[in-house]
Design a protein that fits this description.
By secondary structure, the protein is an all-beta fold. It is built from no helices and eight strands. The chain is rod-shaped.
């Protein structure tokens, strides 16, 4: 993955991703140690369900991790918001109204990994110059079998196959 400008860019179907969270403090300076709660949520997405609910791994200290997995075969952009809340004056992170909090957001861009369509290599073909230049119904000598045709990413997509002659004076376009 690559990141910069609060954006993490990954490929489609990249599997679980771990993002390091650093600089987690209660904001009270050296020696202060309020109980902190770190949460994360997907707050925007260009595609519904692009990213499942992120998981936060944090118990104490100044670092933690956020883990997320993108949906299979989807691409787009999502925004994740990370919130750090302290226990407030009562030291209890569950009394939300008494807590101070700070949020940070970052974007995740999931690039489409759709592969290019495939076709197996075609062996060189030699033709006798006296062989007819045009296909005649029922004549199989001018047929070239094409194999290895696929959509490139394992899906069942409609494909179009076209053939062109590099010299239509010798061999007309099929």
């Amino acid at each position: 993955p690559s990141s910069g400008n609060n954006t993490l860019t990954i490929g489609e179907n990249a599997g679980p991703q771990t993002v390091s969270l650093t600089g987690i403090t209660d904001g009270e300076g050296a020696g202060a140690r309020q109980t902190l709660q770190v949460t994360a949520a997907v707050t925007a997405s260009s595609v519904p369900n692009l990213i499942g609910t992120p998981t936060i791994n944090y118990t104490s200290g100044t670092t933690g991790t956020l883990v997320f997995t993108s949906a299979t075969n989807l691409s787009g952009t999502a925004t994740i918001t990370v919130t750090v809340a302290d226990g407030g004056v009562d030291g209890n992170v569950n009394t939300v109204e008494a807590n101070d909090r700070v949020t940070r957001t970052f974007n995740i861009v999931i690039l489409d990994n759709q592969g290019a369509p495939t076709i197996a290599n075609i062996a060189p073909v030699s033709l006798d110059e006296d062989q007819p230049k045009v296909l005649v119904v029922g004549l199989q000598s001018n047929t070239i079998k094409l194999t290895g045709i696929g959509d490139g990413d394992g899906n069942q997509q409609e494909l179009s196959v076209q053939a062109f002659s590099s010299d239509t004076n010798l061999i007309p376009n099929p």
